[in-house]
């Protein structure tokens, strides 16, 4: 019987094979004391995502790190996860390869804006065709600026979200209420970390809070479904369901941010980028039936606080789109050292 079983197997290896080393950063969070551990990861997709991350990482500066996540919008399962630098990377230690970057706190930048607009749409504060002003404005002692320091004048809410304009978003949050916005995100399961003894305030619209990739991807998954927030599960049975957005509001925002990628790419994908001091998440939420039922996101962060050369804008960071295209932006050194607002998150 034993010989018969051996004969039915595949070709017997003639040499010792190396142990699999996929998704090493998440192994510590799995119950390895059990005889068999089951995850929702899809091995071919995991291998492909790791190869994509490794290829993009070779073109990034030293001490840069990357994390990518792919989830199934129908089952809300994590099907592939690159939580940091691969094991075989020669500079793994310098790139914080031992850390699980998918759960590291980072500022989401403008990646929270779609949920701000969705809540404003369902509360009747605005609609995609509402006119908003992108003009200089002070909110008490807070004076936000757009990324390019320019102004577009009167724009529709849909165009303000597509262009990721800061001033209309802050004005909309001023009407919605920062406390209400933060409470809605937390009720949906997102972990929001503010500075000690700080309350949610207007910089929340521009990423003035700490969160992680997994929670952010779970929020974006709601835009690709019926607006219900479901945590993306790494293992079977881990997903939890919470009310978040009305289906119509989720669909309106998904339609607004469904646009072509810069430089071309797959059509019919809803996506949003965010740029901040602590990280640069790029997140997409697929909207069936135009695209496959997968949502994905990825932050790219640089651990050092000052760039050794000029290609990085905002003193440290460059935008990262979901299709891994890295558009080169013009870097301009600051004229003087500016005091960091209290609402910003200091990231290592």
Mean pLDDT: 77
Instruction: Report the C-alpha radius of gyration, rounded.
Output: 21 Å
Secondary structure tally: strands = 10
How does the major sheet shape up? 6 strands, antiparallel
Strand content: 5-15%
What's the N-to-C terminus distance?
Answer: 60 Å
Please state the second-level CATH architecture. 3-Layer(aba) Sandwich
CATH superfamily: DD-peptidase/beta-lactamase superfamily
Poorly predicted residue ranges: 303-348
Give the helix proportion (percent range): 10-25%
The number of domains is 1
Write up what this structure looks like.
With about 350 residues, the chain is an alpha+beta fold. The protein has a single domain, classed as Beta-lactamase (3-Layer(aba) Sandwich). The chain is about 25% helix and about 15% strand. It has helices at about 1-10, 45-55, 115-125, 155-160, 165-175, 180-185, 215-225, 245-255; strands at about 65, 70, 75-80, 130-135, 155, 230, 240, 270-275, 280-285, 295-300. The strands form 3 sheets. Strands 1, 2, 3, 8, 9 and 10 form a 6-stranded antiparallel beta sheet that branches. Strands 4-5 form a two-stranded antiparallel ribbon. A hairpin with a 7-residue loop joins strand 9 and strand 10 (about 295-300). Helix 3 packs across helix 5 and helix 3 packs across helix 8 (about 245-255). It is elongated and about 70 Å long. About 45% of the residues are buried. The model is unreliable at about 305-348 (pLDDT under 50).
């Amino acid at each position: 019987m034993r010989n018969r079983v051996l004969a039915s197997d595949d070709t017997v290896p003639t040499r010792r094979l190396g142990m699999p080393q996929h998704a090493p950063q998440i192994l510590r969070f799995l119950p390895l004391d059990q005889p068999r551990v089951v995850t929702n990861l899809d091995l071919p997709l995991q291998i492909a995502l790791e190869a994509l991350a490794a290829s993009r990482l070779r073109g990034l500066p030293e001490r840069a790190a990357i994390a990518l996540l792919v989830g199934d919008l129908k089952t809300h399962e994590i099907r592939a996860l690159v939580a940091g630098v691969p094991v075989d990377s020669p500079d793994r230690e310098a790139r914080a390869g031992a850390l699980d970057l998918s759960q590291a706190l980072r500022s989401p930048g403008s990646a929270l804006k779609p949920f701000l607009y969705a809540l404003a749409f369902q509360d009747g504060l605005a609609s995609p065709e509402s006119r908003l002003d992108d003009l200089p404005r002070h909110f008490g002692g807070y004076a936000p600026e757009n990324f390019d320091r320019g102004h577009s004048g009167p724009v529709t809410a849909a165009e303000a979200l597509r262009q990721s304009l800061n001033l209309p978003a802050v004005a909309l949050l001023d009407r919605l209420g920062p406390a209400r916005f933060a409470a809605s995100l937390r009720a949906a399961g997102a972990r929001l970390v503010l500075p000690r003894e700080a309350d949610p305030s207007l910089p929340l619209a521009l990423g003035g809070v700490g969160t992680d990739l997994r929670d952010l991807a779970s929020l974006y998954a709601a835009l690709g479904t019926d607006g219900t927030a479901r945590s993306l599960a790494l293992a079977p049975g881990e997903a939890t369901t919470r009310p978040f957005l009305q289906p119509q509001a989720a669909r309106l925002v998904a339609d607004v941010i469904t646009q072509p990628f810069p430089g071309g790419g797959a059509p019919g994908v809803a996506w949003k980028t965010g740029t901040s001091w602590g990280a640069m998440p790029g997140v997409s939420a697929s909207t069936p039936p135009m695209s496959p039922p997968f949502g994905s996101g990825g932050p790219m962060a640089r651990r050092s606080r000052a760039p050794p050369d000029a290609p990085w804008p905002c003193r440290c960071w460059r935008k990262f789109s979901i299709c891994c295209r890295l558009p080169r932006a013009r870097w301009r050194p600051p004229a003087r050292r500016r005091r960091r607002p209290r609402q910003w998150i200091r990231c290592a």
